[in-house]
Amino acid sequence: MTDTGGDQAPDRCARIVYAGTDIVGPATAAGIGLAVGGPIGALLGAAATSPLTRTLRSALGEFAGRHLGKREIERTGAVLLAAQIEIEAQLAAGKKPRKDNVKSASSGAPPAEEIAEAAILASQRDAQQLKAPLMGRLLARLQFEPDVDSAFAYELIRQTESITYRQLCLLSLFNLNYRDRYKLPDKIDTKTFNGPYEIRVGLLQEIVDLHSRTMLQQRAIDHPGTDLIVAAVNIAPARQELVALGGWLYRLIWQDADLPLEEMAKIASTLQSIGQIRE
Asked: Where do the DSSP E strands lie in the chain?
């Protein structure tokens, strides 16, 4: 493990955690329980002294010994703080953490710390700060998923890193429970584009990209099965469905959590302005 700087290590750890509050929100007992251990941590309850928190604290100590830029520090703290907050929520809801702390796909030791490091590094590389708390939530919830091995955990982290924040919001918008509430159009009318062209095309291309990543499928309307989406002009927003990786990411990031309602409404409004309702 990287040298964390001797007596300065606790201060560096606290600095990282509290820097994350600029993204996640005001510090709570979760942040204190993550930044400190021993008797003080014990006073904060089971979550602060659980094996899951010890895994996060170990990752925190690792990154406290590295040279990080200001924004890297903020995103690192946001991932760890959001993960600790989610761990507390899961334990409070009576959820049982997996005993192997994310099982290995091979015969090696459970790679919980490696998965935490992968999630933090992914967020450090990603300039979209709003994704850092979502990565933290994903990291925490993986600790309560007995059927996810390390290989799939890494893939979920990699996919989350590789798509945009708006694409993650699209997954929440196209979830069955919300798709119909926003009265999304059945097809795109390219003749009614209003506003900046690059915004309209950019959004549609992000939807096409989610299809190519096996996160979305489009339910066919005139025949059984699904449509093959390879171009933006063929998109039917009202008939998008989460599938495979999209379903997993929705459940591990958005389900039973605060949804990005403002962003969802903004996306829906954009789609409504360039679409048509099927008669």
From this structure: 187-188, 216-219, 226-227, 240-242, 275-276
Distance CA 138, CA 148 (A): 12
Encoded amino acid at 34, one letter: L
Closest CA to 239 of 277, 201, 200: 277
Res 44: pLDDT: 45
Which residue, chain included where needed, has tokens 């062209």?
Answer: 197
CA torsion angle for 85, 91, 92, 93 (degrees, to 10)? Answer: 110
Six token digits for residue 252 = 């591990």
CA atoms within 13 A on the CB side of 205: 7
| Residue 120 CB neighbour total at 10 angstroms | 29
Q: How high is the mean pLDDT in each 10-residue block of the chain (279 residues)?
A: 44 87 78 58 52 86 90 95 91 84 52 90 95 97 90 96 97 87 84 64 91 94 79 87 96 95 94 73
Q: How many Å apart are CA 214 and CA 14, to the nearest integer?
A: 39
Beta bridge partners of 216: 242
Question: What is the rounded distance in angstroms from the CA atom of residue 239 to the CA atom of residue 217?
Answer: 8
Contacts of 193 (CB under 8 A, 6+ apart): 200, 274
Tokens representing residue 6 in the block: 């001797």
Alpha helix positions (H), 164-260 = 165-173, 176-179, 197-212, 245-249
pTM as predicted: 0.86
Residue 240, beta-bridge partner list: 218
Q: How far is CA 112 from CA 35, 141, 143, in A?
A: 18, 12, 8
Q: Taking the CB of residue 180, how many other CB atoms lie within 10 A of it?
A: 9
Tokens of 208: 């096409």
